[in-house]
Specification:
Blueprint (H helix, E strand, L loop, with lengths): L1 E5 L9 H11 L3 E4 L18 H9 L5 E4 L6 H6 L4 E2 L2 E6 L2 E6 L17 E4 L6 E5 L2 E5 L13 E6 L2 E6 L4 E6 L1
């Protein structure tokens, strides 16, 4: 199974066409969005491309191929107006002999992982900074943000296939890769 995973859209449509092209070109089976779908947040400046309806339509276009996790900026209203399920907190997916846990990253992350079993993989956003690290017999994978990256990074996303996790930026550069 091939997965396209991204996080922290924050209502900004600018890179969604690119993601749709990646999804189709890579022939992904599922899309997983790790929260912060619509709201830009009080710390961020409004930028061109903020369009909640476009983001909602983009996510709805994946139908039952979409798994969506609730982020810290996603409210009950966001859950109510979305035609797809937005999972609170944590989603577990056993795949290819791996135990994958998906979350937003505000509750569970590389600093708070006690509920995540040893040997598992925790995939989350929230920090807007991409990385793949192994600590305390767990893998921690963050695809960064598709809309509001931190540091000197471009917007980024993650592709999973055959036990390999690869983070790319929207310029096509491979940032990290890990096979397990």
């Amino acid at each position: 199974m091939k997965l396209l995973i991204f996080s922290d859209i924050h209502g900004i449509k600018n890179n969604l066409t690119y993601l749709k092209e990646v999804y189709e070109k890579e022939k992904c089976d599922r899309v997983i969005v790790l929260g912060d779908l619509y709201y830009i947040g009080p710390r961020n400046t409004m930028i061109p491309g903020y369009d909640i309806q476009a983001v909602k339509s983009f996510l709805e276009s994946f139908g039952d191929r979409l798994i969506s996790i609730q982020g810290n900026c996603d409210s009950q209203v966001d859950l109510d107006v979305s035609s797809f399920v937005i999972v609170p907190e944590l989603e577990y997916l056993p795949l290819d002999g791996l135990d994958l846990y998906f979350t937003h990253g505000d509750l569970y992350n590389h600093k708070n992982y006690e509920k995540i079993p040893s040997g598992s993989i925790l995939i989350y956003g929230h920090e807007h900074d991409p990385y793949i690290v192994n600590e305390n017999n767990r893998w921690f994978i963050n695809p960064g943000s598709i809309s509001l990256p931190k540091g000197n990074t471009y917007p980024s996303y993650l592709i999973y296939e055959n036990r390999t996790f690869t983070i790319y930026d929207i310029k096509g550069q491979q940032l990290f890769q890990q096979s397990l």
